[in-house]
Amino acid sequence: MFINSAKQIFVLIVCFTFFQTAEAGWTKQNSGTLAWLRSIYFSDQNKGWVVGSKGTYLTTDDGGKTWIQDKKITKDDIRDVYFSDEKNGWLLCERNIYNLGNQSVSYLMRTFDGGTSWETFNFSEGKDRIARFFFAVDGSGFAVGENGALLSLQNDKRTWKKLALPVRYLMLGGKFTDNLHGLLVGGGGTILFTEDGGLSWNQGKIAGDQKTKLTSVFFVDQKAGWATGEAGKIFFTNTGGKVWLEQVSTVVENLSDIFFVNSEEGFAVGDGGMILHTTTSGKIWSIEKANSKHKLEKVFFVEKKGFAVGFGGTILTYNPS
């Protein structure tokens, strides 16, 4: 009798352990598409958007449990998405370079009614390809791209004005920690910081003067931030972007994006389904099982729930154990 009871308890423990393992970590979702998914954004715990190649535009109203392909609003690639709330959003789009005519490569779409209708307009200055856009807490918008391109959203919330940068490298990412302090990263190991809301930019210094192409940057406060780049490079600053030190990632895959849930826990994603995780502010990075070999473009967390999107219609969801 005792032996049978012991066996039953053992089986229950094994089943419980398996269930916990299955529920924790990263799981692949059915996106309903094979498109190259470029970006993801949530305005709150329930409402989210995923965008990608050939006009792919997915929405969720249930916190990412299900994704729906909304009506086709463009046939062009959608490179980035941002919504300040459920109603007001922006899309960064890119035309086919072989069918441009007199049009610019990159353009914007904006909605005021949650995506029911969209307004399309070109950047008011410059013809450079735009890679990403991002917004400060006061609603100020910035877009970065080729040839050191930086554009700033003006007070009319329609016009984007070109600003001067001290470099000509491809710029790939940015982040504002408040209305005044922001960072840009890009090719040639470029890190630029501003302390006046983007009116002027100064160059940050990476220890060893490394020239790795940098792809993304994330700050948890005005001082502490991380940047990712090619060949598994991760850099850290606690000086607001002025000085950067390399952290040991243990991988050589190119990293595309980084996101920190708090000052200690963060995630970085990249080629081959690479996902790195730290709970020590980046002092130690470990590889997480991604259940995907596709390149991951963006990682985003809302509360403690995480998402990563990438090539081949890949959407991964993270549920902490």
Rg, alpha carbons: 21 Å
Order of helices and strands: HEEEEEEEEEEEEEEEEEEEEEEEEEEEEE
Structural class: mainly beta
Could you state the oligomeric state of the chains shown?
A: single chain
What is the annotated CATH architecture? Answer: 7 Propeller
Tally the helices.
1
Overall tally of structural domains:
1
Give me the side-by-side strand order of the main sheet: 18-22-21-20-19
Q: Could you name the CATH topology? A: Methylamine Dehydrogenase, Chain H
Instruction: Give the fraction of residues assigned to helices.
Output: under 10%
What shape does the CA trace take? globular
Give the percentage of residues in beta strands: 35-45%
Return the CATH class.
Answer: Mainly Beta
Low-confidence stretches: 1-23
Determine the mean pLDDT: 91
Cα-to-Cα separation, first versus last residue:
34 Å
**Main sheet overview:** 5 strands, mixed
Topology:
Blueprint: H1 2-23, E1 25-28, E2 37-42, E3 48-52, E4 57-60, E5 68-69, E6 77-83, E7 89-94, E8 106-111, E9 119-122, E10 130-135, E11 141-145, E12 150-153, E13 160-162, E14 171-176, E15 182-186, E16 190-194, E17 202-203, E18 205-206, E19 214-219, E20 225-229, E21 234-237, E22 243-247, E23 255-260, E24 266-270, E25 275-278, E26 286-287, E27 296-302, E28 305-310, E29 314-319
Parallel strand pairs: 18-22
Antiparallel strand pairs: 1-29, 2-3, 3-4, 4-5, 6-7, 7-8, 8-9, 10-11, 11-12, 12-13, 14-15, 15-16, 16-17, 19-20, 20-21, 21-22, 23-24, 24-25, 25-26, 27-28, 28-29
